[in-house]
């Protein structure tokens, strides 16, 4: 098994100051983490009674209901491990609480941490690489979607076991399309087609055609669909990323499209919606717009809300994310299971058993059917529970198809960035300024690059990169 290499550097001075700057750190005088990178699979056999572990997650509504149901099934299926779920509300809250827990040593045994956390997880030296358990257990990965495994693999080491994987899709109201004279079975496939459809929808009486959610994650996916890496050094996978690479033709195209959609009254947006905002969905429900782009992970919940009750007038349609075709593909979003290094052998072995159970094809099929997350095991797609869901809502397959059919290249492998959320925040700030203050797209993009580069460089300096 590969051990932690160059990017797994000991993070030195003053932990509190580093945490205040939003970088994970391990104090230089801390005792070495126990057990190195070995996965103690046999530890459960020597445990006295069931091993109790804590799992931090950030699921809500239909997603949390399904997670609880599957965890209860795991707990009742055997007598060696009992899992307690702790809801940390959002990914951002989970990451922040995890940072704070590193300072106190009060970390969970396993945590659901987002795709944006990968580099920080490596740098923290607090994670047992899942590769250790894969190797020790002869665990077979061939049934997983290759691009999902590739995302969490850095320098030949799989750091986390993927679980809830998502990517963006287009949500739209078929009834609004019909009223605007559009074919509801032919949704837009490009940004220009989104604009054309928005013109027709606005002309039919809607305040806007499109609800624009300010979340730079969609910008990342657009560039990946364009086949363009987000950061340098092989998207941060050959060496640590030192600057962003998005101030280019494709970046200007996306910023210009957003700016003109809002300026021309074809898109409605809030000053800031953020990753967890739902105002773009509500805009469809309230007839303020007829389309939006958001994560497929919300499909289970959105299907519960739109089309029923006060939103019964909505006939929800779902389609692939509009953008360039045949050049790249959407990225791997969502989160994965991270097992902690600084915990007992028994708890590490227990965490691995739980992660494996949740990823068994039958459970992955149930997870995908109940939430909208992508079934990342190819065999899970054909199982009855998921096929039944597809018979009810065929669009549940779209996220899977986008990953399965997308090209595998450095752009679609996904960026590995230290302060990833800091970069997103810097870009969101400039998008917000552009849309609310009229900053020219080219100027906003250059400012986004400048500020993002500063975030990356500040993080690298803090960790010695």
Describe this structure in words.
- With 465 residues, the chain is an alpha/beta fold.
- The chain folds into 2 domains: 15-166 and 332-382, D-Maltodextrin-Binding Protein, domain 2 (3-Layer(aba) Sandwich), CATH 3.40.190; 168-330 and 418-451, 3-Layer(aba) Sandwich (D-Maltodextrin-Binding Protein, domain 2), CATH 3.40.190.
- The chain contains 20 helices and 13 strands.
- The protein has helices at residues 15-20, 61-77, 91-104, 118-124, 130-136, 146-151, 174-179, 191-203, 217-225, 232-236, 249-263, 279-285, 299-305, 345-359, 361-371, 384-392, 398-405, 410-413, 420-437, 441-463; strands at residues 51-57, 81-87, 110-114, 127-128, 153-154, 157-158, 161-166, 168-173, 210-211, 267-268, 291-295, 316-320, 333-340.
- Strands 1, 2, 3, 4, 7 and 13 form a 6-stranded mixed sheet that branches. Strands 10-9-11-8-12 form a 5-stranded mixed sheet.
- α11 (249-263) packs across α20 and α15 (361-371) runs parallel beside α16.
- It is globular and about 70 Å long.
